[in-house]
Amino acid sequence: MKCKMKNENVPDYFALAAIFEGIQDAVFAHDLDYVISSCNPAVEEVLGYDPGSLIGRPIYHIIPEPLHAEQEVLFQRMLQNERVAHFRTQRLHANGTIIPVALTLSPVRDHEGHVTGASHIIRDISSEVKAEVALNRLAAIIDGSEDAIVSKTLEGVITSWNRSAEQMFGYSAAEAIGRSITMLIPTERLEEEDMILSRIRAGEKVESFETIRQKKNGELIPISLTISPIRDRQGNIVGVSKIARNITIKKMADERQARLAAIVESSDDAIISKTLEGIITSWNKSAGKIFGYTEQEAVGKHISLIIPDDRLEEENKILRSIRNGTKIDHYPTIRKRKDGSLVTISLTVSPVKDADGNIIGASKVARDISQEQAGNEAMRLHAQRLQILNTMAKTISEKLDVQDILQKVTDAATELVGAAYGAFFYNVEHSDGEAYMLYALSGAPREAFEKFGMPRNTPVFHPTFSGEGVVRVEDIKKDPRYGRMAPHFGMPRGHLPVSSYLAVPVFTGTGKVIGGLFFGHPEPGKFTFEHEDLVVNMASQAAVALDNSMLFEQVRDLSQKKDEFIALATHELKTPLTTLSGFLQLVHKRLEDDPVNRSFVDKSLSHVKKLTTLINDLFDVSKIHAGKMQLEFQDIEITELVKDLIEPLHQMERHRIHLNTPGQVYLKADRLRVEQVLANFINNAIKYSPGGGNIEISVEESEEEVCVSVRDEGIGIKQENLKHIFNQFYRAEGLSKNISGLGLGLYISKEIIERHGGTVSVESKEGQGSIFTFCLPKLPVVKPV
Amino acid sequence: MTERQVVVVEDNGDIRDLIGYVLDSKRYTLKLLESASAFDRHMAEHAPDVIILDVMLPDGNGLEMCRRLKENPLTKHIPVVLMSANIDEYSGEAGAETFISKPFDIDDFKQKIEYYLV
């Protein structure tokens, strides 16, 4: 069924009717009461209604309720001659759905031109709207992408520019669209664009192309580009889409790695990585420098390439430690270079782990510590020198023998300067620069020198012997002073080979040259200023020691002369004493009937005895000092000896002498000397008990020793003086003038007993008396002096 | 029985005199000599019963003379008494029978000498 056109006054009606019938859009006409008066067949297609069913129905029948008011407004606008064309709205489909439509509203007029209604042309725009939504969604995606998404024509004119493009490059969409893409390309990369476009024109896609682009502010950014052709429906390439990803972060990681690689490469330390099996996997430049192998030579080889044979086990230990995850820190060891030479290194080995933390290998940092080692060596050498110097200084300050000192100084100095030979010529008395009487050698036997005689005052030796100064020569044979003297004109045949030469004069405290230190080495240039300095210092120390030694020898000579004098004096003094004593005794015998004169002679005799004792004591002390007191050991019986000694004393008026003894007691000792000690103890007992009293002599014997003590009831000794009592020249203070003596007796007694290997002791209480005891071992031990 | 003879060698004349007085005896002859050379001459013709030697003589050493006497089979049986101002000069090694230090007790001296004449 066909819609019937109401207005028949329109010219070419049939043509219009044909159009009306033929068009794809649904067309309605309604009167002023909105009642549908006619419709075309497309109504059915667009809205699903049978066209006949719609005639006579109000237009609202096909308008969704909420849009009724809109219809009224549109109608009014139409009446006011406003064009309402392609107005997007919605209509009700016969199936109840609402469909998007484009509405064009036109007035229907009668032949007088009055509006009698309106025609509606309704176009179904469902597919159009769908496409629009899809496009919007795409646009939203593009706008939301973190990648810059740009499209351009094949000529490079920008046609779209998303938000990320704005952020990434700094241009707004308005600024970018319509301009050439080349604004983003650094000048030196403009060719890139030609390449990209040519590939796109060929229909290729460019993926993950890493390049640099320039931001609006000139800043360069690394990007990764994915470029695809845009085709029209026919498949013609009409443009280019470009997705740019900012790869700054990735770039940074790459750079970091590159930087690390650069550090590894430029490090002075050898940096090597290896697998857990010891296969070298990387080898930096310094590794090449230190070990002599290039990267190509080393990588892939086993690490034992650089390990000396005797240290192969060390590598196993290192690998074991690494497998256990233990780092090795600054381990000093030795490695082998390509040329076979050895190098001292400090090794740090760390495990290399994969992302999961598994140990997959080892990194090895090796530092060449040869120089460090050399520094340590220098320090060690320095310490050693100090040690040698200290030892020498100590020895020579203790030694008093000239030859000893010469030898010590020569040995120490020869060692310190690293000389092959050293000699010390020492002029004991002469100062004419010719006669060097004493000498010490180091590094060569005495015979090596003896056949040449002493060095003479030649041009080479002159500066040393005259005290002009140090001579240090790289090669003495090339020195102008060398070889000028007859008969040898240089070194005598058979002389030790000398090139390096160092000679230092030795001065006394008064500046007199007393000798010279000479050093030689067969190779030239061995002695440095440092050596010279060392020897000069040693020479001055040696001079002091030699001075002391000379003084000591003088003193020793004097001391010897003194001892000889005292021995002679003793003899000379005793000869008249012997005569005096002997004749007085004869006179004494002849005065039996003259008690007064006899008592005078008695007094004289007792003083002769005292004088004898004093002289003996002086002589004994001199012998003790000289270490010349000789003991004559023999078997003696001590009780008998005591009895003989005290026998003449029984007639004393004020003292009574008692002897306690177990009987005969034998020992080996010097009879006269033991007698001397006993006499000294007994005489002291008498002398220091002026008020008289008992004197008790006790002999005691044990398995090891024999002790004899002498007890008196005399004045005693103050406690604080007891420790001095056996000292030389000690005499108790506050003694009455009647008690005379030199204070030598107990000192001599102590020396005699101690030389026998025995001991002396004293107990005393002031005012109550003293006990002096000596003990002698039964088997004498002769103590060396 | 032949007369006993005591020989004394002492360089100091006063001490020789003293010893002469001390050892004044009818029981033996006393020969006082002043030097080692005089002693040697005397010994060439006599065999004394006791010899007293001063250690320090101008022309000899008593210790050395004693040693020679003791080494000689003809004289080694003769008792020798050494005499010195210095007791350290006594040496058993010289082989002397005893030692007298100067100054001495005259009774002691006489007793020691005559001991060897019994």
What does this structure look like?
The complex is a heterodimer of chains A (785) and B (118). Chain A is an alpha+beta fold. Chain A has 21 helices and 27 strands. Chain B has four helices and seven strands; from the N terminus they run E-H-E-H-E-E-E-H-E-E-H. Chain B is globular and about 30 Å long. Chain B is an alpha/beta fold. In chain B, 34% of the residues lie in helices and 25% in strands. The chains are: A alpha+beta (785), B alpha/beta (118). At the A-B interface, helix 17 and helix 18 of A face helix 1 of B.
Q: Using only CA atoms, what is the Rg of chain A?
A: 66 Å
Given the C-alpha coordinates, what overall shape of chain B results? globular
Strand order of the largest sheet of chain A: 2-1-5-4-3
What is the straight-line distance between the termini of chain A? 163 Å
- N-to-C SSE series of chain B? EHEHEEEHEEH
Give the fraction of residues assigned to helices of chain B.
Answer: 25-40%
Distance between the termini of chain B: 14 Å
Query: What share of residues are in beta strands of chain A?
Result: 25-35%
Estimated structural class of chain A = alpha+beta
Q: Mean of residue pLDDT of chain B?
A: 88
What's the assembly state of these chains? heterodimer
The biggest beta sheet of chain A reads: 5 strands, antiparallel
